[in-house]
Amino acid sequence: MNAFQEKFKSGVRSGVVAALLVMILSGCGSVQHKMDMQSGYVPVVGTKIEIGKVSNESGQTFDVNVEQLLTDALTEKLGEKDLLWKGQGNTKLLLSGKIVEYEKGNAFKRWLMPGWGSTVLNVKAELKKGDQLVGTAEARRTIVAGGGFTIGEWNKVFRSVAGDIVEDLNAKIPK
Length: 175
What we know:
The protein is an alpha+beta fold and 175 residues long. 37% of the residues lie in helices and 32% in strands. It has helices at residues 3-25, 66-80, 107-112, 153-172, and strands spanning 28-37, 48-56, 92-103, 119-129, 132-145. Strand 4 and strand 5 form a beta hairpin. The termini are far apart.
């Protein structure tokens, strides 16, 4: 084997090791989110969002209050984008959410074998003006691989999903 081939093999091995280290030390997963507004509906400039009821529709019970975690995350993310309705002004929409799937996951299991111990959060939301449905949103995140740096993702995933929903909302509301 010539010197070039030796360096190439060494580089490939280093790249594979680096990729595995990144995967072990950070979280890998999927992100999906979308928002659809009803045909012909466009929010007016300056529209704010009031957070309505958040419910757990997963059919499971958890050792943490998932409804409150999502409500708090939506409040935080809407506030960061100056979209949170604070009780004044008439231009508001009501955002209600349903947690349709949640798996707390386990970072140690993800470290041992990617896919095992996955953290999953899937939320469906409705946006209403008064009693009229004007939009729907869906956001889903999974953390399927990773190690030490994914400890606590069971909690952080709520802020990530809320951020996805608010990002989509922000794109739909004219400035």
